[in-house]
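HUMAN:
Sorry, I am quite new to this. Are you able to go through these amino acid letters and fold codes? The numbers rather puzzle me.
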Amino acid sequence: MQIINIHEAKTHLSRLVEQAARGASFVIAKAGKPMVKVTPIDAPAPHQIRRLGFMTGEIAVPDDFDRMGGDEIEQLFTGEA
């Protein structure tokens, strides 16, 4: 994420707001210390963003998953039908 010092943000505010409205969030810093994050209004809230593992326990993967179809795949490579 882009970090912009407060002086540069004041100088280029219109351009930065347009970029943020298109989804390019940025952070405004004062003396190198991040102060605020600018994001578009329609950006999803952190609790709305789906993370890996959200379907834990919903899908069952067979124990032999990594060997499934092995014979058929081997036949495709060797040409033996």
Notes: The first strand starts at residue 2 and ends at 5.
